[in-house]
Design a protein that fits this description.
The chain is α/β, with parallel strands linked by helices and 485 residues long. The chain has helices spanning 3-25, 34-41, 69-81, 95-111, 121-124, 164-180, 203-209, 211-216, 223-249, 297-300, 315-318, 324-342, 372-383, 399-413, 417-422; strands spanning 57-58, 87-89, 117-119, 136-137, 143-144, 187-190, 254-257, 266-267, 282-285, 288-292, 308-312, 350-358, 389-392, 424-425, 436-443, 446-453, 461-465, 468-472, 479-483. The chain has a single domain (3-423), classed as TIM Barrel, CATH 3.20.20. It is 38% helix and 17% strand. The chain starts with a helix and ends with a strand. The structure holds zinc ion.
């Protein structure tokens, strides 16, 4: 978990604890903890039935604190009316307490026939826990760390074997307790980022200094080989310590990790702690360097894909479109289309999304915020390119706006339920210049279409869908259903 998110999570837990007490005296004033109330304030009950499609996940719709069974049922039911799935976190540092709270919520979910949703992030930390035995080792036999990832010291990818049982046990403890309690697990995710082997930043330089790494990587100067070996190790850690114990007890569970998804061999975004280092292979696009990425998804054993579609600040300087909305839209649609195109239909795509600009520009000055209107268009195109549902990452201060924008699209989209559940995307093209963007889902002989114009006064455009040519007229801010000839 990144530091920002850790703080958010701790604040949520703290607030939940204090509100649970405050709430007893004044029933009307504060019914739910503030982070949960923020979700209610920003959403309305769904107008269209969502069937058995995945709920909307929201960082704030997590860990409501200590509830009795009746309140838990009420909360789960009221969130479900809004299409929102409540998530419970497992905390291996506070096992009895976090298990008791998550049991209450999960039992309510089971009773109501809804999905049990789990955040297992805490269980995955840390492989690199500061133990010197996990550090790199130099020619004099002295341990050293790779400090190019910020506050979390990264160590030697080949020194983690003894950490595997420790991390796996943290997952297994909770999984087994759920099994014993006859509870299911339907959706389980982690936000496991700065830990374990990662080939980026100055990792390769550190490994070259390390005699253990040099013994294990034949062509250590070759980035492709370095990447392949590190990603294989990283995938294996996730599979062994997390995906495997979950799936062995709950074979149908959707299990995944932040940022791990099928793709075309390139990553169109950088996480907040990542930066480019000369010599790493990339595909150039204006000022952007899209890094070559390893196909880790199949080796992790994950059963859902979790792309990250955020307004990272650096995107703003990568492109020079005068319509600055298209800088965000273009990049974020590239990320979503990459996942949509390469993820098999039976693997759900649950995409992290975020709207407020993330981070600050290295070049100084403000990046112009992506407009809410075009962000909503982007979300529609994501849904019509294979995204199954969204996971809104946001802090409390941004929650109202973040949730309103996404919930509006999610709620409206439910009227096209059969297309969302059974339709096949017809287009993954992302225009290099701001013009007309078209996405669609084909079902039988009909296509659900979204058309967004970045230039005014555009006429009908002919596209191919299911081998047939169809004309798509402009239809601002709405979907169209077109029958194939
Ligand atoms: Zn090493």
């Amino acid at each position: 978990m990144n530091a920002h998110k850790l703080v958010t999570a701790l604040v949520i837990i703290g607030l939940a604890a204090s509100m649970a007490h405050a709430g007893q005296g004044k029933e009307k004033a504060a019914k739910w903890p503030p982070h949960i109330q923020a979700v209610f304030d920003a959403t309305k009950p769904l107008e269209f039935d969502r069937g058995d499609r995945l709920p909307l996940y929201i960082w704030q719709a997590m860990d409501p604190g200590s509830l009795d069974d009746k309140s838990a049922e009420k909360l789960v039911r009221k969130l479900n009316e809004r299409g929102v799935g409540l998530i419970s976190s497992w905390d291996p540092r506070n096992r009895a307490n976090s298990l008791a709270k998550s049991f209450t919520v999960s039992r309510a979910q089971k009773k109501l026939g809804l999905r049990v949703n789990i955040n297992a992030t805490g269980c995955l930390y840390s492989f690199f826990d500061g133990d010197e035995r996990t550090a790199h080792i130099d020619d004099e036999g002295k341990p050293f760390w790779d400090d190019s990832f910020g506050k979390h010291n990264m160590g030697c990818p080949f020194a983690l074997d003894f950490r595997r049982p420790f991390v796996r046990e943290q997952v297994e403890f909770f999984v087994k307790e759920y099994k014993k309690a006859d509870l299911g697990i339907d959706f389980i995710f982690v936000d496991w980022e700065i830990d374990g082997p990662i080939e980026f930043n100055k990792a390769q330089a550190a490994s070259k200094r390390c005699r253990r790494c040099r013994q294990n990587i034949k062509n250590i100067d070759d980035f492709d080989e370095f990447q392949k070996i590190l990603r294989k190790l990283r995938s294996e850690l996730q599979r062994h310590a997390y995906a495997e114990p979950v799936k062995s007890h709950f074979p149908k569970a959707l299990v995944g990790n932040y940022g791990v998804y099928p793709h075309n061999g390139y990553r169109y975004w950088y996480d907040y702690f990542e930066y480019y280092v000369d010599g790493q292979p990339f595909k150039a696009d204006r000022n952007a360097k899209y890094r070559k990425w390893y196909h880790e998804f199949p080796e992790t054993g994950y059963t859902f894909a979790m792309p990250v579609v955020y307004t990272w600040c650096r995107i703003f300087d990568w492109y020079d479109y005068a319509d600055t909305d298209y800088r965000w839209f273009y990049n974020m649609l590239l990320v979503a289309s990459n996942a949509g195109r390469h993820t098999p239909a039976e693997i759900p795509i649950i995409s992290f999304v975020h709207w407020h600009t993330v981070g600050s520009r290295p070049s100084g000055g403000q990046a112009k915020q992506f407009s809410g209107e075009k962000y909503k268009e982007l979300l529609w195109h994501m849904l019509l390119r294979g995204t199954d549902t969204f996971f809104i990452w946001c802090g409390r201060q941004d929650a109202a706006k973040e949730i309103q924008l996404v919930h509006k699209v999610y709620a409206e989209a439910q009227q096209y339920g059969r297309f969302l559940s059974k339709g096949t995307p017809i287009n993954f093209n992302v225009p290099k210049q701001p013009g007309t963007v078209i996405s669609g889902l084909k079902l039988g002989n009909r296509v659900l279409i979204r058309r967004t114009d970045f230039k005014k006064k555009q006429g009908p455009i002919e596209i191919t869908a299911g081998g047939a040519k169809i004309k798509v007229a402009a239809a601002p801010k709405r979907c169209q259903i077109i029958s194939l000839p």
